[in-house]
Amino acid sequence: MRALSWLPIVIVTVVHLAALAAGSATAGAWSQVLLMPALALVLLVLPRDDRGPAWPWALGALAASWVGDSLPRLVPEDAEFLAMVGGFAVAQVLWIVAFTRVERGRSPMAWTLLLVVVAVALLAVTVPEAGVLAPAVVVYGLLLLAVAWLAASHGWVGGFGGALFVLSDGLIALGAFRPDLVDWPQCDLLVTATYVAAQALFVVIILLTRSPERTPPPERSSRPRRGSDTIR
User: CA nearest 167: which of 190, 200, 201, 140?
Assistant: First the structure.
C-alpha cells in the first residue's frame, strides 16, 4: 500500500512534464494543480501510529505549496508572483517546523558553507533588481537557506532534497528578476522536476523518522540493583 501511494505523484509529474515539453498550457495548468495533492496521498495513507510529530507540519507544507501552485491562477496578473511566493514562503516555514520536530543530526559543515555561498550569490544577483520587493526576497532567501540546512541534518536524502529545493527556487528567482540568466529552452521543465523531486525527498524524511513516543524504551536488566543484592 505504501509503495502504491507513490503512483499518483509519479503519473501526475510525468503528465505535467510532458505537457510542458509539448507546450500545452491547459494540460500543464491542471496537472500542476494536482502535483501536491498527489504527493500528499503518500502521507495521508500512513497509519496513525506511523505518522509521528512532524506529520501534520509536513502535510501543511504540501498544502501551502499547493496554494503557491494554484493561487496565481485566481489573482490578477500583477499579483501572480506575490501569490506564488506567499504560498511557498508559508510552506518553507512549515517544513522548518517539521524538520525540527523529529530527532536529527548535524548538517555537514561543507554543505553549510556551500549553502551560504549559493544564497549570497542568488541574493547579490536578484536583490538589486527586485525594487520594492527586495526585503521580501531577502526573507524568502533566508527561509530557503534554513529549509535546505535543516533538511541536510537528516542525512543524504535531506541534503539532496535541499539542494534540489534551492535549485528550483533559485531558478524561479532568476526567472523573475534576471530572466537573461535563464533564457534557455525548457527551463520550466528543470524547475518543475527539481521542485517535485525536492518535495518528494522531504516526504521521505518524514517517512523515515519515527515518533519519539513510539521509540521503544531501553531494556532493563533483570539483575537486581547493587543495593538490593542482600536482603536486610
Answer: 190
C-alpha cell of residue 146: 534554513
18 Cβ contact partners less than 8 Å away, ≥ 6 residues apart: 27
Q: Quick check: 41 and 8 in contact, CB under 8 A? A: yes
Cβ-Cβ contacts under 8 Å for 50 (sequence gap 6 or more): none
Give residue-wise pLDDT tens across range 77-108: 888 888 999 999 999 999 999 999 887 777 78
Cα gap 153→98, rounded to integer Å: 12
Q: What is the residue type of 103?
A: E
Nearest to 111 by CA among 171, 139, 153: 153
CA atoms of 68 and 13, how far apart (whole Å) = 17
- Nearest Cα neighbor of 168 from 133, 151, 144, 149 is 144
User: Side chain identity at 140, as an amino acid letter?
Assistant: Y
Instruction: Please report, as a single letter, which amino acid is at residue 142.
Output: L
For residues 78-104, b (16+ Cβ closer than 10 Å) or e, as one string?
Answer: eeebebbbbbbbbbbbbbbbbbebbeb
Helix 187-208 vs helix 7-22: crossing angle, to nearest 10: 170
* Closest-CA residue to 65 (of 91, 41, 85, 40): 91
Kindly report the pTM of this predicted structure.
0.86
